[in-house]
Design brief:
With 189 residues, this protein is an alpha+beta fold. 51% of the residues lie in helices and 15% in strands.
Length: 189
């Protein structure tokens, strides 16, 4: 059985000899040989158990950092409150925003994947109050600068409001990023 009697600086350079018995125990746990050696070196060849714990802990933390499935997406609709829209009109305009943004998301691979993850985790939707057309435009510019997909609904002008009025801004993205755009707005009540 080999032991570790080398200078600790060797471990940092990866030149330390590993305990072959410990290495075999780690390989028996289906840990790849190079990863097992690295874990043994970084834990000072204390034991196979220490190295295994180190290896599995580092795997877990890597998965948490890289795993985009842990990201939650939401679709937000900002209603232009300077327009005198009834409840039914607002509901219809939000519907236009949802369909328009969803169709936009499906056009590109990057945003299509976002749409699928959004659906998979409950398709969260939130309706908020925007103060004016200018406010919706400012929010849209901010969202675009953060690489968030947006869709701005313009009314056809057949019922309550003038044609071309901007009624709803729809924004989609990872929840924390969307909150940087719309997090301070009040819920529509």
């Amino acid at each position: 059985m080999e032991t570790c009697d080398q200078d600790p600086s060797d471990a940092a350079q990866g030149t330390m000899e590993v305990n072959v018995d410990y290495l075999q125990q780690l390989k028996d746990l289906d840990i790849p040989e190079e990863e097992a050696k690295k874990a043994l070196i970084l834990t000072g060849n204390v034991s196979a158990e220490e190295a295994a714990i180190f290896y599995f802990d580092s795997l877990e933390s890597q998965n948490q950092e890289v795993d985009e499935d842990n990201l939650y997406y939401k679709m937000v609709f900002v209603v232009n409150m300077e327009l005198s829209m009834g409840v039914g009109k607002i509901a219809a305009q939000v519907g236009h925003g949802a369909v328009g943004l969803y169709q936009l998301l499906l056009k590109e691979a990057k945003t299509r994947e976002m749409a699928y993850k959004w659906e998979e985790y409950g398709a969260k939707k939130v309706v908020l109050q925007g103060s004016s057309t200018a406010h919706l435009m400012e929010l849209q510019a901010l969202a675009i600068s953060m690489d968030l997909p947006t869709y701005l609904v313009q009314d056809a002008g057949r019922t309550q409001i003038a044609a071309g009025s901007h009624t709803i801004l729809a924004v989609m993205g990872e929840e924390e990023i969307v909150n940087k755009v719309t997090g301070k707005l009040k819920l529509l009540n």
